[in-house]
Amino acid sequence: MTSFLPDLTPLELETDPKGCCARLYESDAVRWLLDEQLHPGGEQLTRRLAELAGVAPGRRVLDVACGSGATALLLARELDCVVVGVDLGARAIEQARRATHAGVRASFLLGDAEALPLPDASFDVAMSECSLCTFPDKPRAIMEMARVVRPGGSIAIADVTADLDALPAQLRSAAARVACVADARSAGAYAALLRDAGCEPLAIEPHDAELRAMADRVEARLRLARMLAPPGDEREGIREAAALSRLAIDAIARGTLGYALITARV
Amino acid sequence: MAARDILPAATRSICPHCGADLDAELIDRDGRVVLRRECPEHGPIEALAYGDTVRWRNAQRYDRPGAAPLLRQTAADKGCPRDCGICPEHAQHTCLGIIEVNTGCNLDCPVCFAESGTGHQPDGYSLSLAQVESMLDAFVAAEGQPEALQLSGGEPSIHPHILDMLAAAKARGIPLVMLNTNGIRLARDPRFAPALAGLGVHVYLQFDGFDDATHRAIRGRRLQEIKQRALDRCAAAGVGVSLAAAVERGINEHELGAIVRFGVEHPAVNGVFFQPVTHTGRHPGFDPLDRLTNVEVIRGLCAQLPDWFREDDFVAVPCCSPTCRSATYALYDGEDLVPLPRLVDVDRYLGFVTNRALPDLEVAAALSGLFSASAAGGTERTAGRLECVACGVGLPEELQRIAARGFMVVAQDFQDEWTLDVTKLRKCCVAEIVPDGRMIPFCAYNAAGYRAQIRADLAARTTA
After folding, report:
1. Are A203 and B374 within 8 A, CB to CB?
2. Domain carrying residue B33
3. What is the ipTM for the molecules in this complex?
4. Is B69's pLDDT higher than 60?
5. What is the pTM for the complete model shown?
6. Looking at the structure, do residues B214 and B349 belong to the same domain, yes or no?
7. Among all residues of chain A, which has the CA nearest to that of B338?
8. Torsion-angle region of residue B334: left (phi > 0), alpha (psi -120 to 50) or beta?
9. Cys-Cys link to B429, which of B95, B323, B331, B332 (CB 3.0-4.6 A)?
10. Domains, chain A
């Protein structure tokens, strides 16, 4: 474990935040930090989101920013729906394709959430798990989801919620953006974006405890990583990341940072 | 064992004044669990059983069904706790056996559940090697392969045959053999620690804090230099040590964090056991509704070391009654300390969470061994189990090595005449092995009159 965190220079973070996020979540180190659970609540919360969105056998489901396909494959396997996953990370898409067993109705496309390479009204459900917060143009991403879902279908979003004005400055930095914090919105603001895209918001279900558990796990693993890092920049970088995760834990405890499932009818 | 996570809960207890067996109940009072009963002669009696009702309720989920011992030495006749030895109604085998080899001591502590001391004790005793060997055989007969044994007293290190007794225990293949000592002989006799190292014995060292006032209140004299020298000799000889701190309200509650800090830094020390003082035998005055339980001890520790611990780092140990013992393991590298439960979903592996995929069985078995009354930090078995867990949850190899040195922190609340709850007692997995081969649950031994009986029997035989 010589180089623990992937090399993300500040310049990249400013100029190419989406690509930067995609690369970050592809890295082995980050997967280890998150203990392979790339979003709060793990599979259980994914199932809950699918339930809220009315995912059922045979439904056509889109997973926006699908990563290496864990959620898409889970839904296809357990709910017997037809899933398409889209992600900006080429390596993630390759991994997802490799993990797709014969007979599972899931396929994966390289593509940008803000310009989905998919026809209008071609899905019953569009989902986005813990990724909208990292998109620079959120209205655009939601418009795209609304475009590819048929009228009467649903959009289901699981995401970090934040009261941005009450967050400490460090949690609004570029580094915090990739950790899904700096550019998150309040649950109400997400609902407003859905309304602006012509959808009818249905439910907002808070799950702050799941975010807290995840932040705890990351904080503990960063502290372990610090034990292994050679003295110098890398160790200091990890120390800073651990401090950032502690600020996030405090913010969750104060209620200024949270996690919610949000659904809307198209 | 049926879960009992609803209060009030019916149980049985005794009167601390006359020893009468009484119906009792656990009730919630202002968010804490109180054991209440009424003695026809001495009126209403109440004592704090657990310092937090919500935590008490959560802990009940950890009440794993017990395993039967190979032998039951007594019949169920008069009802718990009057048939001990182990009777057919006891719900657990023995994880940790204790043999008190003598009553003589080289200290006269104001706090001593065993009522030992330096003066001539007309009711005292000292077991022979042959007696201890037959007690060890009884332990092996009851357990098949016993997991852990502690030789205690009195002060066992002053027994002239203590090394032979420890060797006899090791010869019976017991993996963890401990000597419970105040450390005076370790400090004074330079040959003693190397002898223990040669036998592969683990030291369970009384260590109550650093303030002179703490030592005077609990042990009657200053002991800090002696403890330090004993530990340094253990380190030089390669003897692993667990620090055992008797913790009392208003005396050394403020030293919990300092004891752990000292422990993680000292090369001989692999763990700390905090034991709220039991108010049995010799003890100072106290308020039974304001005594310390594991909750107060863990909370105090977390408040004193907030960067290292929080309350949910401590796991209720499932082999005994889950409010008896809470434990954690921590990875420490000289700068930071990370508790193991933050890295592993212990609940999931110990089977308390339903509707989850069956986890890795090897990891589950290792965790089950770690969170047990027969575990101690720094032993080969503990290191092996920690490595298995670290590997099972995908820690890099370098971290697996740090994990194997895992530091154990335990809060262990024994019962006394005030707090005796037979529902807890029936699940007890720590037993006093007595010369006739009975194995008496530790808290019954202290609280239900067995200690006095056994001591009188032995004293009579010694003088005869």
Report:
1. no
2. 9-68+418-463
3. 0.80
4. yes
5. 0.86
6. no
7. A220
8. left
9. B95
10. 10-265 (3.40.50.150)
